[in-house]
Amino acid sequence: MTISISPFATSRISDDTYSLTLAQLTSVFIAEIERLLGPRDPKFTYTGLEFDTTPNASPHIWFLKTGYPGHETDQDPTHITIRLTVAAQNDANLAIWQLAHECVHLIDPWNLKREGRPSNYLEEGLATWYQNTIIQDIHLDPPYDEAKSLVQPHMPQLAQTIKHLRTNHNLRIGDIDDHDLLLRNFPEMDAKVAERLCQRFETAW
Question: Distance (Å, rounded) from C-alpha 87 to C-alpha 93?
Answer without folding.
Answer: 11
